[in-house]
Amino acid sequence: MIIDAHAHVWPDKIAELALSANRLPELNARGDGTVSGLEADMAASGVSVSCCLGIANEARHVDSVNRFVAGLTSDTRFGFGTVHVDLSVEENMASLRRHGVRAVKIHPLFQGFALDDPRLWSIFEAFGDEIAVITHVGEGGSPEANRLSSPKMIADIAKQFPALRLMACHFGGYKILDDAEEMLNGADVVLETSWPPSLSTLRPERVRDLIRRHGAERIVFGSDWPMTSPAEEIKAIDSLGLSDDETKLVLGGTLARVLGIDSPWS
Q1: Residues 115, 153: contact at Cβ < 8 Å?
Q2: What is the rounded radius of gyration, in angstroms, for the C-alpha atoms of the chain?
Q3: What does the pLDDT read at residue 40?
Q4: What Cα–Cα distance (Å) separates residue 227 from each residue in 59, 91, 252?
Q5: Average pLDDT, stretch 205-223?
Q6: pLDDT band at residue 28 using 50, 70 and 90 as cut-offs
Q7: Among 2, 9, 44, 75, which residue's CB has the most CB atoms within a 10 Å radius?
């Protein structure tokens, strides 16, 4: 049962505009960002469940984004909502609970606040073990934006909030994998595998060794659709030379446990 931890979708009427506005240098989208486009790629790749990540770049959009992702949730889609530090802890929590959202995506590059912002930490404290978190970590924007997230910040969050179900995208450090491997060695954080334009651009033996050091039970598969092809990213995982049990944990078992999804692989 393959579960994709990392897919971005928008309402059909704004998907093209949103995808263009969030474009990262040197990356070309492989999908259209719509729900129907995601479902087509899921069918083609064998993904059973996709985590649909919503992001509010501005505080005023938090509740509408949470409403949208809550409406997406089904047997094949798990909606990840959003929070923003320009809202109070109480306002953020009220929006999540109002819409029944049980997980959120943080994206410092687009939201404009750092992972070590005290306002964000106050939100994490309120999450406890109730709300799961997946966050971008690493580069991908301007030098100023790149400084908003780092492997060290993830390690500090993991220490400060041991109950938080924390997942760090891009192995905890997009384009700064050396730092991630050093800072997150032994950290109690789940790492996600996406690496646009493809995981296959990293040496397979390095990825395999990283997964085995950290433990497949703390690794989740993510495609970062629509920036990548889920089918190609699954092929990259299958080509790492992991054992069958390790591969099943990475491709779905670990995430099923983290999110409380019934799965024969968990």
Answers
A1: yes
A2: 17
A3: 97
A4: 25, 32, 20
A5: 98
A6: confident
A7: 9
Compute the distance between CA of residue 194 and CA of residue 174 in angstroms, rounded to an integer: 9
Please give the order of strands across the beta sheet that includes 166-168: 103-106, 132-135, 166-168, 190-192, 219-220
Q: What distance, in Å, lies between the first and last C-alpha atoms of the chain?
A: 9
User: Per this entry, what is the length of the chain?
Assistant: 266
Q: What is d(CA 178, CA 199) in angstroms, rounded to the nearest whole number?
A: 16
Distance of CA 149 to the CA centre of its chain: 14
Taken in order 226, 229, 234, 240, the sign of the CA dihedral is negative
How many CB atoms sit inside 10 A of residue 218's CB?
18
Tell me what the mean pLDDT of segment 252-260 comes to: 97
pLDDT value for 184 = 97
Q: Which amino acid is at 184?
A: L
* Whole-angstrom distance, CA of residue 60 vs CA of residue 84: 9
Report the 10 Å Cβ neighbour count for 73. Answer: 16
Q: Which CATH superfamily is domain 2-259 in?
A: Metal-dependent hydrolases (3.20.20.140)
Task: Return the domain boundaries, the chain.
Answer: 2-259
Q: How many Å apart are CA 160 and CA 166, to the nearest integer?
A: 12
pLDDT digits (tens, 9 = 90+) for 116-139: 999 999 999 999 999 999 999 999
Q: What are the tokens at 247? A: 């591969």
- Identify whether the C-beta of residue 6 lies closer than 8 Å to the C-beta of residue 223: yes
Record the pTM: 0.96
**In the prediction, which pLDDT does 26 show?**
73
Q: Is the peptide bond before 143 cis (omega within 30 degrees of 0)?
A: no
Nearest to 64 by CA among 46, 87, 48: 87
| Cβ neighbour number for residue 232 with a 10 Å cutoff | 15
User: What does the block give as tokens for 238?
Assistant: 């299958």
